[in-house]
Each structure stands twice: as structure tokens, then as C-alpha cells.
Amino acid sequence: xxxxxxxxxxxxxxxxxxxxxxxxxxxxxxxxxxxxxxxxxxxxxxxxxxxxxxxxxxxxxxxxxxxxxxxxxxxxxxxxxxxxxxxxxxxxxxxxxxxxxxxxxxxxxxxxxxxxxxxxxxxxxxxxxxxxxxxxxxxxxxxxxxxxxxxxxxxxxxxxxxxxxxxxxxxxxxxxxxxxxxxxxxxxxxxxxxxxxxxxxxxxxxxxxxxxxxxxxxxxxxxxxxxxxxxxxxxxxxxxxxxxxxxxxxxxxxxxxxxxxxxxxxxxxxxxxxxxxxxxxxxxxxxxxxxxxxxxxxxxxxxxxxxxxxxxxxxxxxxxxxxxxxxxxxxxxxxxxxxxxxxxxxxxxxxxxxxxxxxxxxxxxxxxxxxxxxxxxxxxxxxxxxxxxxxxxxxxxxxxxxxxxxxxxxxxxxxxxxxxxxxxxxxxxxxxxxxxxxxxxxxx
Length: 444
Hints:
This protein is α/β, with parallel strands linked by helices and 444 residues long. 49% of the residues lie in helices and 12% in strands. It has 2 domains: 14-155 and 324-393, Periplasmic binding protein-like II (D-Maltodextrin-Binding Protein, domain 2), CATH 3.40.190.10; 159-320 and 410-442, D-Maltodextrin-Binding Protein, domain 2 (3-Layer(aba) Sandwich). It contains 21 helices and 12 strands. A hairpin with a 2-residue loop joins strand 5 and strand 6 (146-147). The chain starts with 13 loop residues before the first helix and ends with a helix.
């Protein structure tokens, strides 16, 4: 899902890896400031790695603090960067694996499990999760019949966020279809503010654009087939979706600053362009977490001066509902793997989810989280929609793919869609390139 980012460096051995971890912990702080004196895990440090930066990292540390207060364990958060696979591999190789990793891609979770890196969920964690998560979330965390990954944070990735004053000034209302979306965007541009801030520097945002268009146009059955690479990327349905997406990418009225500027804009920067002190666009497409960034970084109130509408239906299709999520896993060879599993048992409870829910910028797939725990009505309604969708949710397609195709900065789908943003003139050529990269990554 969303993965604001820094480059991941490979550790050069056990000593350098240890030094790097110490430096990171010093720079980022820890979540154990409120550790319970004499708690059952007193004297134990649980190291947790994840992609989160900025406000997301700050709010997750509140969850770490709650665990520390409950158990006495000290907690340290280590940013993994976008390439979680490379990061974890380097830490294992260096003999300094974190205890817990928050994995944002189903394909990477499966890769870790097949490599023998993961510890199965304890009976307590599995039972708790089985009672409060829809089966689809357990399925995404299961590899070869073994339950490894606990989905803690979910995302509703079919939301388009906008500055109400921009739409009001342009005299446009929330669009209900793709054609209305393009028309509204061009009207916005004519009023003085380009339509979309596109975060093209982060390739994962472009995969999300494609997935929403494809799910609506091609339908859920083909979406599932393409996600498993049982349908080739050269299929006409893919070319059609790319052609539709090109309607946005090729129009400088719709992309603030054009492709060149978009390719220099990361996800946090795209939110700033809409909700920051000097707005340069009226809308930003991404998941529900946009609201949290707008609130924490720019003081916007979701539902008031930061609103969203559902990603509209494309052509004759239905409005898409694409989700994503971050699964917590325990590395079995980590120094404190048992304490790490205790942390997952905590994450499986509504208590843990409600800590972040109150801070904002968070959705839980846990049906037992109290609606009143969410920070605002917008988050409350979005969370209810996600939970109500149950097994009909379609998980982010790129997150289901092998990391080499769907989850690596500068490679695979991320890079090829960045190339397509740069030059969207030949959807068939892009589809062929995507198929070649997918065939290599999937091994078929």
C-alpha cells in the first residue's frame, strides 16, 4: 500500500548491521518511553520494522507505547524503506533481523514464508484474529496453509481527496463517473488550479491508479486472474485500461505540472500540493490515509476542509473498491521472536487498533473496533464501509505480485508505469513490457 520512502542500504556484516540499527533507533526514537516497570517483558526490547514515515510512523509509535505500558517491553521502530524484501534480507544476512516486520505486500509476505523466514502465528494470535477479521484477511496472511501474517492496518484505496474551496471556486460538484471526473478536472484547471497532484516519484501510487480503472472496467473476475498472472498483461482489457489512464496522464490540465513535475513528486508531496500552504492542485487520488496526512501535517479537518468522493465507475462498470493493508509477521530467527509474537497478540486486539484510530489516518479490518474510537466521522464511515465489504474487497493487485514485479522501487510495474506516465502514447507497448516483466517475476 503506501509507502513513502527512503533508499534501503544493505548491511555489510553483523557489526555494521548492529551499528546501523543503533543509529536508526537513536535517530527515530523508540516507543518504549512508557514501559511498565516490572512488567512481564521488562528488560526485553522488541524491534519493529516498517515502511511508515512522518505522521504514520508517529502514530504507530503510540501503539508501541501502549504495548510497552502493558508489558514492560521496550520497543524500537526501524524504517525499512520501500523495498522491504531487500531490507529484511540484508538484516537476516547480517545476523541482525528485527523481531517484527510490517509487510505491505501479499507477494512479499509469501516470499518470506517460502524462504522459511517466518514464525507461524501463535494459537492466541490466530484465534483472536479469526474472531474479528473477515476470512479474506486471514487468507491474505496465509501461505501454504499456515497463518503467518496478521493484518493490522487496512486501506480503502478507492478514494479521491479534494480541497472543497477549489471545487467550489470552479463551480463543480463531486463527479459520479470517469467522464464526469475528467470534465471536473478540466474545469478546475480552467479556474486556475490543475486537477490532480500525481505522486509519480512513488511508483506504487501509479499501480493504484491502474488497479481502480482496471477493476471497474474489466470486472473482478479478470482482476483476480491478472493478479495471479493467469491472464497476460497483453490482454485487450489491460490495453483498454492503460488507454483510459492515458486520458489523465497526457493532459497537463489534469496533472499538475505535467508528467515531469509528477515524476518529481512523492506521496507526501502530492498531499502537500492540495492541502499545504501553497496549493497547486485541487485533488489527489490515493487511499483514506490522505486524510491523516492532511490533518497531521496541515491542520485540515477530514470531512470539512479535506473531503473525498469514491473513485468513480469507469465506462459501464461498477465503482471499484480496492483495498490494501500491512501485515505484521515475526521473523523466526530474530533475537526476541517470542516477545515479538506477544506484540502480534496485542495487535490482534481492538485495544491496539483503537490507539491509532483515535490519532487518525488509520483504518482497521478488525470488526470489533468501536466506531466511536475513530477520530472523525469521515474515518468512521470509511472504516464501516471497509468492514461491511467483507470478502468482496479486492486487495491491491501489485501487493499480491512477487516483489520483483509489484513491489520494487525502480523495477517491474512501478518503473514501467512511471515510464508510461512520462510517455503514455503507446499503451500496447507498455502492456507488452508489463507482460515481459511479470512473466519473469512469476516464473511463467
